[in-house]
Amino acid sequence: MKKNQKSILRQSSGQEIKNQKFQGFTLIELLVVIVIIGVMTSFLMTNYIGVRIRSRDVQRKSDLRQIQSALEMYRSDVGMYPDTVSFVCDNSITSGGVIYMQRIPCDPINVAPLTYRYSSAAPNLIYTLVACLENVNDQQKDSANVAPCNGTSNWSYTLLSP
Hints:
The chain has one helix at residues 27-78, and strands spanning 8-10, 16-18, 93-95, 98-101, 117-121, 126-133, 155-160. By secondary structure, the chain is of the alpha+beta class. Strands 5-6-7 form a 3-stranded antiparallel β-sheet, with helices on one face. A two-stranded antiparallel ribbon has the order 1-2.
């Protein structure tokens, strides 16, 4: 057939049918679009995961500051800090019927080593509060990693008694 001639087909009944060119996407075009969508999704998911990690670390720091505040009120009334044994997630900080903290907060994940650690040295006049941060690039992390975070992929954040 010549290039200028239109392609015409004939049915068995003799009617002419014009051969129409069907428009659609090629396999290559579809694969390119799928790859672009996949790359964009991976960037968004990475960012989303990073935001969740940072938000849990903010919660950890806030929890430690609340615990520190309750410990300072406890020491103001009792004259010393509570012993280490009584510090358990979901317990309360009380003395003589006074409630200093209704419920000691738990780490947002609360699976070792992502737990809060409180230690008080005898005679309970100083204490250390430690949380393990998931974001190792956090600006407020400790300069040296301490237990229970050392040896893990997490980094410690410590509050000491004033």
